[in-house]
Amino acid sequence: MARGKKTDKITTLQTTEIVLCFMLAAGLLTLPRVAVETAKTPDVWMSVILAGAATFLFGWIIVKLSSRFPESTFYQYVQRITGKAIGKVLGILFVIYFICIAAYEIRAVEEVTSFFLLEGTPVWAISAPFMWISLYLCLGGIGTLGKICQVIFPITAAIFLLICLLSLNIFELNNLRPVLSEGVMPVIKALKTTTLTLTGTECLLFILCRMEKPEKATKAVGLAIGISTIFYTATLILCIGAFSVEGVMTRTWPFLDLARSFEVEYLLLERFESLLLSIWIMQIFATFSIAFYCASLGVSQILNSSYSKALFILLPFIYVLSQIPKNLNELFSFGTMIGNAAFVLFALLPLPLLLISHWRGVRS
Protein backbone atom coordinates (compact mmCIF):
# COMPACT_ATOMS: atom_id res chain seq x y z
CA MET A 1 0.00 0.00 0.00
CA ALA A 2 2.81 2.39 0.84
CA ARG A 3 4.34 1.92 -2.60
CA GLY A 4 0.98 2.56 -4.32
CA LYS A 5 0.40 5.69 -2.26
CA LYS A 6 3.83 6.98 -3.12
CA THR A 7 3.38 6.51 -6.86
CA ASP A 8 -0.04 8.23 -6.80
CA LYS A 9 1.49 11.58 -5.86
CA ILE A 10 1.92 14.52 -8.21
CA THR A 11 4.55 17.24 -8.33
CA THR A 12 3.83 20.98 -8.34
CA LEU A 13 4.56 21.11 -12.09
CA GLN A 14 2.18 18.23 -12.76
CA THR A 15 -0.49 19.96 -10.67
CA THR A 16 -0.06 23.13 -12.75
CA GLU A 17 -0.36 21.19 -15.99
CA ILE A 18 -3.41 19.23 -14.83
CA VAL A 19 -5.20 22.51 -14.01
CA LEU A 20 -4.01 23.97 -17.33
CA CYS A 21 -5.23 20.99 -19.35
CA PHE A 22 -8.58 21.17 -17.55
CA MET A 23 -8.94 24.87 -18.43
CA LEU A 24 -7.77 24.65 -22.05
CA ALA A 25 -10.22 22.45 -23.93
CA ALA A 26 -13.10 23.00 -26.34
CA GLY A 27 -13.59 26.53 -24.98
CA LEU A 28 -10.49 27.78 -26.77
CA LEU A 29 -12.07 26.91 -30.13
CA THR A 30 -15.36 28.70 -29.39
CA LEU A 31 -14.58 31.54 -26.93
CA PRO A 32 -13.96 34.26 -29.56
CA ARG A 33 -17.44 33.81 -31.06
CA VAL A 34 -19.26 33.45 -27.71
CA ALA A 35 -17.49 36.43 -26.13
CA VAL A 36 -17.89 38.72 -29.16
CA GLU A 37 -21.59 37.84 -29.47
CA THR A 38 -22.04 38.98 -25.86
CA ALA A 39 -20.00 42.20 -26.01
CA LYS A 40 -20.25 43.11 -29.75
CA THR A 41 -17.02 45.07 -29.38
CA PRO A 42 -13.32 44.27 -30.02
CA ASP A 43 -12.50 45.21 -26.40
CA VAL A 44 -13.65 41.79 -25.21
CA TRP A 45 -10.02 40.71 -24.67
CA MET A 46 -10.01 42.94 -21.59
CA SER A 47 -12.77 40.78 -20.15
CA VAL A 48 -10.46 37.75 -20.31
CA ILE A 49 -7.79 39.54 -18.26
CA LEU A 50 -10.37 40.60 -15.65
CA ALA A 51 -11.81 37.06 -15.66
CA GLY A 52 -8.31 35.69 -15.03
CA ALA A 53 -8.01 37.87 -11.91
CA ALA A 54 -11.46 36.76 -10.69
CA THR A 55 -10.64 33.11 -11.38
CA PHE A 56 -7.44 33.40 -9.35
CA LEU A 57 -9.47 34.68 -6.40
CA PHE A 58 -11.85 31.70 -6.67
CA GLY A 59 -8.87 29.35 -7.03
CA TRP A 60 -7.16 30.85 -3.98
CA ILE A 61 -10.31 30.23 -1.89
CA ILE A 62 -10.41 26.62 -3.13
CA VAL A 63 -6.75 26.16 -2.17
CA LYS A 64 -7.37 27.62 1.30
CA LEU A 65 -10.35 25.32 1.81
CA SER A 66 -8.54 22.17 0.64
CA SER A 67 -5.39 23.10 2.60
CA ARG A 68 -7.36 22.70 5.84
CA PHE A 69 -7.78 19.03 4.92
CA PRO A 70 -4.47 18.09 3.23
CA GLU A 71 -5.13 14.33 3.44
CA SER A 72 -8.73 14.34 2.17
CA THR A 73 -10.60 15.09 -1.04
CA PHE A 74 -13.60 17.41 -1.15
CA TYR A 75 -15.97 14.42 -1.14
CA GLN A 76 -14.54 13.36 2.22
CA TYR A 77 -14.13 16.62 4.09
CA VAL A 78 -17.38 18.32 2.98
CA GLN A 79 -19.26 15.76 5.10
CA ARG A 80 -17.25 16.87 8.13
CA ILE A 81 -18.02 20.54 7.44
CA THR A 82 -21.75 20.34 6.71
CA GLY A 83 -22.79 16.98 8.14
CA LYS A 84 -23.11 13.64 6.36
CA ALA A 85 -26.48 14.15 4.64
CA ILE A 86 -25.77 17.61 3.18
CA GLY A 87 -22.18 16.61 2.39
CA LYS A 88 -23.31 13.59 0.36
CA VAL A 89 -25.84 15.73 -1.56
CA LEU A 90 -23.13 18.29 -2.39
CA GLY A 91 -20.79 15.47 -3.40
CA ILE A 92 -23.43 14.01 -5.74
CA LEU A 93 -23.92 17.47 -7.34
CA PHE A 94 -20.19 17.66 -7.99
CA VAL A 95 -20.19 14.16 -9.50
CA ILE A 96 -23.06 15.15 -11.84
CA TYR A 97 -21.13 18.28 -12.84
CA PHE A 98 -18.02 16.30 -13.79
CA ILE A 99 -20.09 13.72 -15.69
CA CYS A 100 -21.62 16.60 -17.68
CA ILE A 101 -18.16 18.07 -18.38
CA ALA A 102 -16.95 14.69 -19.66
CA ALA A 103 -20.07 14.27 -21.83
CA TYR A 104 -19.67 17.77 -23.28
CA GLU A 105 -16.02 17.19 -24.17
CA ILE A 106 -16.69 13.81 -25.82
CA ARG A 107 -19.48 15.32 -27.93
CA ALA A 108 -17.27 18.28 -28.89
CA VAL A 109 -14.63 15.83 -30.11
CA GLU A 110 -17.24 13.99 -32.18
CA GLU A 111 -18.55 17.20 -33.77
CA VAL A 112 -15.15 18.71 -34.60
CA THR A 113 -13.56 15.45 -35.75
CA SER A 114 -16.47 14.31 -37.94
CA PHE A 115 -16.70 17.75 -39.59
CA PHE A 116 -13.01 18.56 -40.15
CA LEU A 117 -11.03 15.29 -40.06
CA LEU A 118 -13.09 12.09 -40.42
CA GLU A 119 -16.14 13.04 -42.45
CA GLY A 120 -18.65 10.20 -42.71
CA THR A 121 -17.14 8.22 -39.84
CA PRO A 122 -19.76 6.94 -37.34
CA VAL A 123 -19.63 9.00 -34.16
CA TRP A 124 -19.29 5.90 -31.97
CA ALA A 125 -16.12 4.96 -33.85
CA ILE A 126 -14.66 8.36 -32.89
CA SER A 127 -15.72 8.37 -29.25
CA ALA A 128 -15.24 4.69 -28.33
CA PRO A 129 -11.39 4.58 -28.61
CA PHE A 130 -11.25 8.01 -26.95
CA MET A 131 -13.28 6.80 -23.95
CA TRP A 132 -11.65 3.40 -23.54
CA ILE A 133 -8.12 4.82 -23.65
CA SER A 134 -9.19 7.38 -21.05
CA LEU A 135 -10.59 4.57 -18.89
CA TYR A 136 -7.26 2.73 -19.08
CA LEU A 137 -5.43 5.93 -18.18
CA CYS A 138 -7.70 6.71 -15.21
CA LEU A 139 -7.16 3.22 -13.80
CA GLY A 140 -3.59 4.36 -13.13
CA GLY A 141 -4.76 7.16 -10.81
CA ILE A 142 -3.89 10.85 -10.62
CA GLY A 143 -0.15 10.19 -10.91
CA THR A 144 -0.65 8.78 -14.40
CA LEU A 145 -2.91 11.70 -15.35
CA GLY A 146 -0.21 14.12 -14.17
CA LYS A 147 2.39 12.44 -16.39
CA ILE A 148 0.17 12.46 -19.49
CA CYS A 149 -0.59 16.18 -18.96
CA GLN A 150 3.16 16.78 -18.73
CA VAL A 151 3.48 15.30 -22.21
CA ILE A 152 0.40 16.91 -23.78
CA PHE A 153 0.70 20.52 -22.64
CA PRO A 154 4.20 21.38 -24.00
CA ILE A 155 3.19 20.03 -27.43
CA THR A 156 -0.05 22.04 -27.28
CA ALA A 157 1.80 25.20 -26.27
CA ALA A 158 4.36 24.83 -29.09
CA ILE A 159 1.69 24.32 -31.80
CA PHE A 160 -0.44 27.15 -30.39
CA LEU A 161 2.55 29.53 -30.41
CA LEU A 162 3.44 28.56 -33.98
CA ILE A 163 -0.12 29.22 -35.21
CA CYS A 164 -0.24 32.54 -33.35
CA LEU A 165 3.03 33.69 -34.93
CA LEU A 166 2.01 32.61 -38.44
CA SER A 167 -1.42 34.22 -38.13
CA LEU A 168 0.25 37.62 -37.64
CA ASN A 169 0.52 37.70 -41.47
CA ILE A 170 -3.25 38.22 -41.72
CA PHE A 171 -3.62 40.27 -38.54
CA GLU A 172 -5.11 43.78 -38.91
CA LEU A 173 -4.59 46.02 -35.88
CA ASN A 174 -7.34 48.37 -37.07
CA ASN A 175 -9.91 45.66 -36.31
CA LEU A 176 -9.16 46.19 -32.61
CA ARG A 177 -9.56 49.97 -32.75
CA PRO A 178 -10.78 52.23 -31.27
CA VAL A 179 -10.16 50.92 -27.76
CA LEU A 180 -13.15 51.27 -25.39
CA SER A 181 -15.15 53.13 -28.04
CA GLU A 182 -18.39 52.00 -26.36
CA GLY A 183 -17.15 52.38 -22.78
CA VAL A 184 -16.50 49.70 -20.19
CA MET A 185 -20.02 48.24 -20.02
CA PRO A 186 -19.52 45.76 -22.94
CA VAL A 187 -16.33 44.55 -21.22
CA ILE A 188 -18.23 44.02 -17.95
CA LYS A 189 -21.11 42.37 -19.84
CA ALA A 190 -18.75 39.76 -21.34
CA LEU A 191 -17.12 39.08 -17.97
CA LYS A 192 -19.52 36.26 -17.12
CA THR A 193 -18.84 34.45 -20.40
CA THR A 194 -15.07 34.72 -20.11
CA THR A 195 -15.06 33.73 -16.42
CA LEU A 196 -17.07 30.60 -17.20
CA THR A 197 -14.58 29.65 -19.92
CA LEU A 198 -11.69 29.94 -17.44
CA THR A 199 -13.21 27.52 -14.93
CA GLY A 200 -10.88 24.63 -14.14
CA THR A 201 -9.42 25.34 -10.71
CA GLU A 202 -12.17 23.16 -9.22
CA CYS A 203 -10.09 20.04 -9.85
CA LEU A 204 -7.82 21.24 -7.00
CA LEU A 205 -10.59 20.24 -4.60
CA PHE A 206 -9.74 16.63 -5.46
CA ILE A 207 -6.03 16.64 -6.35
CA LEU A 208 -4.48 18.94 -3.73
CA CYS A 209 -4.39 16.03 -1.27
CA ARG A 210 -2.28 14.12 -3.82
CA MET A 211 0.37 16.85 -4.14
CA GLU A 212 3.87 16.12 -2.90
CA LYS A 213 4.13 19.75 -1.72
CA PRO A 214 0.58 21.00 -1.05
CA GLU A 215 1.96 24.28 0.33
CA LYS A 216 2.83 25.21 -3.27
CA ALA A 217 -0.77 24.84 -4.50
CA THR A 218 -1.31 28.61 -4.69
CA LYS A 219 1.77 28.96 -6.90
CA ALA A 220 0.53 26.12 -9.13
CA VAL A 221 -2.97 27.58 -9.56
CA GLY A 222 -1.60 31.10 -10.14
CA LEU A 223 0.75 29.86 -12.87
CA ALA A 224 -2.01 27.78 -14.52
CA ILE A 225 -4.48 30.68 -14.55
CA GLY A 226 -1.82 33.10 -15.82
CA ILE A 227 -0.87 30.85 -18.76
CA SER A 228 -4.53 30.11 -19.58
CA THR A 229 -5.36 33.83 -19.54
CA ILE A 230 -2.50 34.49 -21.98
CA PHE A 231 -3.77 31.69 -24.29
CA TYR A 232 -7.36 32.94 -24.29
CA THR A 233 -6.38 36.61 -24.64
CA ALA A 234 -4.09 35.83 -27.59
CA THR A 235 -6.85 33.76 -29.22
CA LEU A 236 -9.37 36.60 -28.96
CA ILE A 237 -6.99 39.31 -30.17
CA LEU A 238 -5.78 37.27 -33.16
CA CYS A 239 -9.27 36.12 -34.22
CA ILE A 240 -10.73 39.63 -34.01
CA GLY A 241 -7.65 41.07 -35.73
CA ALA A 242 -7.93 38.57 -38.57
CA PHE A 243 -11.71 38.45 -39.08
CA SER A 244 -13.10 41.61 -37.38
CA VAL A 245 -15.94 41.53 -34.84
CA GLU A 246 -18.59 40.78 -37.49
CA GLY A 247 -16.47 38.02 -39.04
CA VAL A 248 -15.88 36.26 -35.73
CA MET A 249 -19.61 36.21 -34.97
CA THR A 250 -20.34 34.29 -38.20
CA ARG A 251 -17.87 31.46 -37.45
CA THR A 252 -18.70 28.40 -35.35
CA TRP A 253 -15.07 27.57 -34.53
CA PRO A 254 -13.16 30.86 -35.03
CA PHE A 255 -9.74 29.64 -33.90
CA LEU A 256 -9.91 26.67 -36.28
CA ASP A 257 -10.85 29.04 -39.10
CA LEU A 258 -7.85 31.17 -38.13
CA ALA A 259 -5.55 28.16 -38.57
CA ARG A 260 -7.13 27.53 -41.98
CA SER A 261 -6.70 31.13 -43.13
CA PHE A 262 -3.03 31.09 -44.00
CA GLU A 263 -0.62 28.88 -45.92
CA VAL A 264 3.14 28.71 -45.47
CA GLU A 265 4.99 27.36 -48.48
CA TYR A 266 8.43 27.02 -46.93
CA LEU A 267 7.35 24.72 -44.07
CA LEU A 268 6.72 20.97 -44.21
CA LEU A 269 3.01 21.59 -43.59
CA GLU A 270 1.28 24.25 -45.67
CA ARG A 271 -2.06 23.96 -43.83
CA PHE A 272 -2.25 23.81 -40.05
CA GLU A 273 -5.87 23.06 -39.13
CA SER A 274 -5.32 19.27 -39.15
CA LEU A 275 -2.26 19.63 -36.93
CA LEU A 276 -4.13 21.96 -34.60
CA LEU A 277 -7.08 19.56 -34.41
CA SER A 278 -4.85 16.58 -33.68
CA ILE A 279 -3.18 18.45 -30.84
CA TRP A 280 -6.44 19.85 -29.50
CA ILE A 281 -8.04 16.41 -29.48
CA MET A 282 -5.20 15.41 -27.13
CA GLN A 283 -6.00 18.47 -25.01
CA ILE A 284 -9.71 17.60 -24.86
CA PHE A 285 -8.70 14.02 -24.04
CA ALA A 286 -6.83 15.31 -20.99
CA THR A 287 -9.82 17.42 -19.91
CA PHE A 288 -12.18 14.46 -20.37
CA SER A 289 -9.87 12.17 -18.38
CA ILE A 290 -9.58 14.62 -15.47
CA ALA A 291 -13.37 15.07 -15.30
CA PHE A 292 -13.86 11.29 -15.59
CA TYR A 293 -11.35 10.74 -12.75
CA CYS A 294 -13.02 13.31 -10.47
CA ALA A 295 -16.52 11.89 -11.10
CA SER A 296 -15.42 8.28 -10.53
CA LEU A 297 -13.49 9.23 -7.40
CA GLY A 298 -16.64 10.90 -6.10
CA VAL A 299 -18.83 7.85 -6.72
CA SER A 300 -16.32 5.56 -5.03
CA GLN A 301 -15.87 7.80 -1.96
CA ILE A 302 -19.53 8.75 -1.51
CA LEU A 303 -20.75 5.15 -1.85
CA ASN A 304 -17.62 3.56 -0.29
CA SER A 305 -17.22 1.38 -3.37
CA SER A 306 -14.35 0.42 -5.66
CA TYR A 307 -12.83 3.23 -7.75
CA SER A 308 -12.23 0.92 -10.73
CA LYS A 309 -15.86 -0.28 -10.65
CA ALA A 310 -17.03 3.36 -10.62
CA LEU A 311 -15.00 4.00 -13.80
CA PHE A 312 -16.71 1.16 -15.67
CA ILE A 313 -20.17 2.10 -14.37
CA LEU A 314 -19.92 5.81 -15.29
CA LEU A 315 -18.54 5.33 -18.82
CA PRO A 316 -21.86 4.32 -20.50
CA PHE A 317 -23.72 7.08 -18.61
CA ILE A 318 -21.28 9.66 -19.98
CA TYR A 319 -21.69 8.39 -23.54
CA VAL A 320 -25.50 8.37 -23.37
CA LEU A 321 -25.52 11.91 -21.95
CA SER A 322 -23.18 13.09 -24.70
CA GLN A 323 -25.68 11.99 -27.36
CA ILE A 324 -28.64 13.93 -25.93
CA PRO A 325 -27.91 17.29 -27.67
CA LYS A 326 -29.41 16.98 -31.15
CA ASN A 327 -27.21 19.59 -32.86
CA LEU A 328 -24.43 22.11 -32.28
CA ASN A 329 -26.78 24.77 -30.91
CA GLU A 330 -28.06 22.39 -28.25
CA LEU A 331 -24.48 21.35 -27.48
CA PHE A 332 -23.45 24.98 -26.94
CA SER A 333 -26.53 25.53 -24.74
CA PHE A 334 -25.48 22.46 -22.75
CA GLY A 335 -22.01 24.00 -22.36
CA THR A 336 -23.55 27.26 -21.10
CA MET A 337 -25.58 25.31 -18.51
CA ILE A 338 -22.41 23.56 -17.33
CA GLY A 339 -20.66 26.94 -17.05
CA ASN A 340 -23.49 28.37 -14.95
CA ALA A 341 -23.39 25.30 -12.69
CA ALA A 342 -19.62 25.71 -12.35
CA PHE A 343 -20.07 29.31 -11.23
CA VAL A 344 -22.50 28.27 -8.47
CA LEU A 345 -20.54 25.21 -7.33
CA PHE A 346 -17.00 26.57 -7.48
CA ALA A 347 -17.25 30.36 -7.27
CA LEU A 348 -20.03 30.75 -4.71
CA LEU A 349 -19.88 27.54 -2.62
CA PRO A 350 -16.22 27.21 -1.44
CA LEU A 351 -16.20 30.53 0.50
CA PRO A 352 -19.20 29.64 2.75
CA LEU A 353 -17.66 26.18 3.32
CA LEU A 354 -14.34 27.80 4.26
CA LEU A 355 -16.09 30.18 6.69
CA ILE A 356 -18.14 27.33 8.23
CA SER A 357 -15.02 25.19 8.68
CA HIS A 358 -13.32 28.12 10.48
CA TRP A 359 -16.39 28.79 12.59
CA ARG A 360 -16.79 25.15 13.59
CA GLY A 361 -13.04 24.64 13.95
CA VAL A 362 -13.10 21.68 11.53
CA ARG A 363 -9.79 20.65 9.98
CA SER A 364 -7.55 17.62 9.60
Automatic annotation (TrEMBL):
What name appears for this protein in its UniProt entry? Answer: GerAB/ArcD/ProY family transporter
Ranges that cross the membrane: 12-32, 44-65, 85-104, 124-145, 152-171, 191-209, 221-245, 275-295, 307-325, 331-356
Question: Where, subcellularly, is it found?
Answer: Membrane
UniProt keywords (A-Z) are: Germination, Membrane, Transmembrane, Transmembrane helix, Transport
Annotated coiled-coil segments of the chain: none
Q: Which family does it belong to?
A: Belongs to the amino acid-polyamine-organocation (APC) superfamily. Spore germination protein (SGP) (TC 2.A.3.9) family.
Q: Origin organism of this chain? A: Paenibacillus polymyxa
PANTHER family in UniProt: SPORE GERMINATION PROTEIN A2 (PTHR34975)
Q: What is its main location?
A: membrane
- The answer, when asked if Magnesium is one of the entry's keywords, is no
Q: Which GO cellular component terms are attached? A: membrane
A Pfam match is: Spore_permease
